[in-house]
Amino acid sequence: MPAIHRRSLLTGSAAVVALAGVARAEDTPGVTATEIRIGSTTSLSGPVSALGVQARCQEAFFRMINEQGGIAGRKITYIYYDDGFSPPKTVEQVRRLIEEDKVALLFNMLGTAPNSAVVKYINQKKVPHLFLSVNGDKWGDYKTNPWTMGFAPSARIEAQIYAKHALMQKPGARFAILYQNDDLGKDYLAGVRDVLGDRFASQAQAVSYEVTDATVDSQIISLRASNADALLSGGTAKFVAQSIRKVSDLGWKPMHYIASGATSVAGVIEPVGRERAVDVMSSAYVKDPNDPAWDGDAGIAEYRAFMQKHFPDGNVKDTYNTYAYTVAQVLMRVLRQCEGRLTRENIMRQAANLKDVEVPTLLPGITVNTSPTNYHPLRQVQLMRWNGQTWERFGKIIAGSDV
Length: 403
Fold this sequence. Notes:
Blueprint: E1 4-9, E2 35-42, H1 53-67, E3 75-82, H2 87-100, E4 105-107, H3 112-125, E5 129-130, H4 155-169, E6 175-180, H5 183-196, H6 200-203, E7 204-209, H7 217-224, E8 230-234, H8 237-250, E9 255-258, H9 265-272, E10 281-284, H10 298-310, H11 319-337, H12 344-351, E11 380-386, E12 391-399
Parallel strand pairs: 2-3, 2-4, 4-5, 6-7, 6-8, 8-9
Antiparallel strand pairs: 1-3, 10-11, 11-12
Helix pairs in contact: 1-11, 2-3, 4-5, 7-8, 8-9
């Protein structure tokens, strides 16, 4: 049986005020005079179970909100189920959340394949499907799925930013693109194409790989022959690590940008060798609690205090927890903007009406913005470079183009 986690939570952060106004209990499933039910699926087991900590952190966050009075006088009941990163299980658990548990909305559901399996059903049911833990560009498609919204900068936006930066360093730069032959990798390809436009054919060479491939060595050798100025490795950690190693072996020195999801020091940099990765670049948008630059920062201090008091068995240095805390803050902003009118329609309307929202754990200058025609809450990142010992942020905040 999948693990079942259901809690009535009490708590709040100083930044969150209880909402005034009363919505009638019968207006929305999952909303009564005293309760609002929020649902999610995650991976507490399976191949990416490490990411399941996000739901546990958010459970603690909602407990904090309830202790501070809740939302518009209502306590949050947070119900999340383990799907083991298996789409058929996601289908089963999401039906349970909507049809049996009667949740008002779904929040921060994990994974591209699990969310893809249920997005059509959720939109047919007109249930807010908010701030998914994914990075595909398709989660900003407000026309196809008006009840679904991602959160992090998409891979397409990330690639737009890398291309912009490379062109700032060298106008007319030629690009080599290694991409995984799936939705994730194709977003990186599309992002470079967005920036280059008609120049793509003459200034870029792209080579794909399959997740079943043993290595990407032959692809890197092929791209090296193009003498490109910039290389973008758009894929998952295993293959990005291989690309870093092969580029080093070849003595190639392009501006090398890698997917932000493949920057783990333990999982990517150290297996490759810290020296081999020197000058590789990626991007960030959330403050890293491991970075000494934030030791005196008020936002990180508040996050650490939250972890110590409300989630003491969680790892304060785990950036998955920092991310979970950050996105939960944004959901609270949405619910506060509802001003007590907690219908599904108004929750979705407010989710698509976030204007320059600052969150203390986002990097300075990065704000959350949405509109009825912008379902990409975050479009900005700051670049960072591996210096041999740590990731070092540099330069100004860069925004992606409109897609």
